[in-house]
Amino acid sequence: MDEMEVFDRNAVRLHRTRAAAQIGNVADLLADLASRLLDRLDDTTHRFNRALDLGGRGSIAPALRARGMHVTSLDPSARLAGKAGGTPLAADPEFLPFAPGSFDLVIASLSLHWTNDLPGALIQLRQSLRPDGLFLASIPILGTLDSLRTALTETEAALTGGASPRISPFPDLRDCAALLQRAGFALPVADAEEINLLYADPMTLLRDLRAAGETNAVRLRDRRLPPRALFPATLAALPTHDGRTKIRLRLAYLTGWAPAPTQPRPLVRGSAQISLADALKSQD
Question: In this structure, is the dihedral angle defined by the CA atoms of residues 88, 90, 92 and 95, taken in order, positive or negative?
């Protein structure tokens, strides 16, 4: 086992396979979050024919097919791939089986945050795009589930004298923008949105995470049964709003293009026809 791996890839696959039977319980939530990403397709006049849906869990492929695209739905779990809505393919996102230029659109909706080698996966995704192909992704970032993380840590420490990792580590927004550049995408953009979810029954939060395949897959997780009081005490400590439990999601939306000669290029240094001083004067 690679000691540098943060996530247990086998656990990720098993959690998603288990979630396949329950995915309908969170279909509306996944569809709402996916729609925020898909809206970005309306910002371009490009037309796409062959798309890759990476881990969309049924929230991406049907919308792309409705736009006339042929969609391949890849997921680590064969069962979830079969429910995603496109031509199913079970494969590890860290080891993509595609030839260069296989797609002109790749969409990864909330599916890259369990990836150990995220830079490597992004490079592979960029290579799978044709020149001027579009990459769109949403990924949870720092601040997501922060109140749950804090409550779990403090409650477990009070009960046992220690705490194990129970919530996935998330990148910062600045990391996301840098990763797009590092992977070789042209015109990279990363922006963030904060979403607050309200639960009348806080136990529904844990059920939703399980139904979405989002339970703990950190490699160094404690595999023993947790203390019986851990989750009830944790949920009781979460913040509330109007009597309902409040949970924060922070999502980064990533946009990048496969390089192509037709894309805009920055001006060559020294080629400007007006000086900075003159430009500033013109604004006085």
Answer: negative
What does pTM read for this prediction? 0.90
Cβ-based burial of 117 (10 A; exposed 0-12, middle 13-18, buried ≥19)? middle
Which tokens sit at 35? 């729609």
Residue 150's pLDDT band, with cuts at 50, 70 and 90, is: very high
pLDDT in tens, 59-99: 999 999 999 999 999 999 999 999 999 999 999 999 999 99
Q: What whole-number distance in Å separates Cα of residue 210 and Cα of residue 3? A: 26
Greatest Cα pair distance, the chain, in angstroms, is 71
CATH H-level superfamily of 9-281? Vaccinia Virus protein VP39 (3.40.50.150)
Nearest C-alpha neighbor of 76 from the set 13, 7, 10: 13
Query: Do the beta carbons of residue 176 and residue 254 sit within 8 Å?
Result: yes
For the chain, give the number of residues. Answer: 284
Nearest Cα residue to 106 out of 73, 82, 79 = 73
pLDDT(268) > 70: no
Nearest alpha-carbon partner for 217 in 97, 95, 76: 76
**Gap between the Cα atoms of 41 and 104, Å rounded:** 13
